[in-house]
Amino acid sequence: MRTAPTEQQPSTQRGDRATPAAGGAAATALSALEEVPWGDIQDSSGCAAGIPRLLRGMAQDDAETARAALDELRTRVCQYGFVVEQATAATVPFLWELAQLPQVTCRPQIIQLLKNIADARQWESVAAVYPKLLNHRENPAEWERRARQAVRSRPGALRTLLAEQDGEIARATSELADALAQ
User: Whole-model pTM?
Assistant: First the structure.
């Protein structure tokens, strides 16, 4: 595994490109995907270059395609619902964007993924028992902290989602708000 570069520079690698979702809002929300050096960071499968394809898949009008993309993304950035990866923090802003788009079909599940990321403490728990983990070049406890900070960085989005009329979205957002309050 490699450590993410300290400076965010566009990658020269163009990993999995897909056609942006129909509808300008989804395409606009994901327009910054190319600014993240996905090829230089890792997810649970190895190189995170496939994450943009999955995020674009989640923005598709087809609910089955969106759900399949979300399921794969969840495995890659928050495996088992509590193990975050190096690429998780870079993925979170795009999850927030997709969660706010009314045409995205898997919004409640995206919000639940954000909650799982906010709750993640696996690596910190391991580091509490084995503090030498914190001295490694690869510091997964730091990945968790960054991922949680990324989830917490959008209080305005949280307020907007709490006001949603859709009961499933409101319920998932309330659970996320409760997790962030702890």
Answer: 0.78
